């Protein structure tokens, strides 16, 4: 009888990881982009959604290139000081790569990226741990939006429900989430069922670099902030 493939051991040590070669490829790609495109932007993001970001990136595919990932790797590619920057002034944007941030290289006139970034936002369902933007409370009584098959699932999410003649009924008022407080896994599932979206995926431009000039977009930032960081 042939051996079963289901219980075949797998050696995890053979799994490929993103190591030095990957980092070097990213560094080289960023340096190529510096030479290819006219300007570079640093941007930050809120509530990243990979699919939505891909859609935004595809809009600029013919004229731009984006980089997300390790801030340290991107900083190395650009240069972290005047001494090791690959083009004059690039160490400034390197020091602004902090937290949830990325790079955009483009040859578009500067008014276009600024408008596209400022206008773009997309709403999605909040994930576990994110902060509720409003209080959602369900009142006692029938929940006509749910079918009777969902009653066991709703109970597992902590909702005080029962079936009354085949109709899902809330036996007491129930607070799904409270404004300003973290959303629990159960609350996240209930909000999705209710169709309530609390997460806004948004991109914010921080600064722009070109061989001719450098410009801040975030209010309050100055050259002194970069040099002192």
Q: Nutshell version of this structure?
A:
The protein contains 8 helices and 11 strands. By secondary structure, the protein is an alpha+beta fold.
What does this structure look like?
By secondary structure, this protein is of the alpha+beta class. It has two domains: 22-122 and 200-227, Ribosomal protein L10, N-terminal RNA-binding domain (Alpha-Beta Plaits), CATH 3.30.70.1730; 136-196, Alpha-Beta Complex (Molybdopterin biosynthesis moea protein, domain 2). It contains eight helices and eleven strands. The protein has helices at 20-36, 50-59, 71-78, 90-94, 111-119, 151-156, 185-194, 223-227; strands spanning 39-46, 64-68, 101-106, 121-124, 136-138, 141-142, 161-164, 167-170, 174-177, 199-210, 214-216. Strands 1, 2, 3, 4, 10 and 11 form a six-stranded antiparallel β-sheet that branches. The longest helix has 17 residues, at 20-36. The chain starts with 19 loop residues before the first helix and ends with a helix. The relative contact order is 0.17. The model is unreliable at 10-15 (pLDDT under 50). Residues 1-20 have a biased composition (Basic residues). This is Ribosome assembly factor mrt4. Residues 1-23 are annotated as: Disordered. Belongs to the universal ribosomal protein uL10 family.
């Amino acid at each position: 009888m042939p051996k079963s493939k289901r219980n075949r051991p797998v050696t995890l040590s053979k799994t490929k990881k993103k190591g030095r070669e990957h980092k070097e490829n990213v560094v080289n790609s960023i340096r190529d982009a510096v030479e290819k495109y006219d300007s570079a932007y640093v941007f930050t993001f809120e509530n990243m959604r990979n699919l939505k970001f891909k859609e935004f990136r595809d809009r600029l595919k013919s004229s731009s290139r984006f980089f997300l990932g390790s801030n340290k790797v991107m900083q190395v590619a650009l240069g972290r000081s005047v001494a090791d920057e690959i083009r004059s002034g690039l160490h400034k944007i390197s020091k602004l790569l902090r937290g949830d941030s990325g790079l955009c290289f483009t040859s578009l006139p500067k008014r276009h990226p600024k408008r596209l970034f400022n206008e773009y936002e997309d709403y999605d369902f909040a994930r576990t741990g994110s902060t509720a933007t409003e209080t959602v409370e369900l009142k006692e009584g029938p929940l006509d939006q749910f079918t009777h098959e969902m009653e066991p699932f709703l109970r597992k999410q902590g909702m005080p429900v029962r079936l009354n003649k085949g109709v899902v009924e809330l036996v007491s008022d129930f607070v799904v989430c409270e404004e300003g407080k973290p959303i629990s896994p159960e609350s996240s599932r209930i909000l999705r069922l209710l169709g309530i979206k609390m997460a806004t995926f948004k991109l914010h431009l921080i600064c722009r670099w070109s061989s001719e000039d450098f410009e801040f977009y975030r209010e309050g930032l100055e050259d002194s902030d970069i040099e002192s960081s």
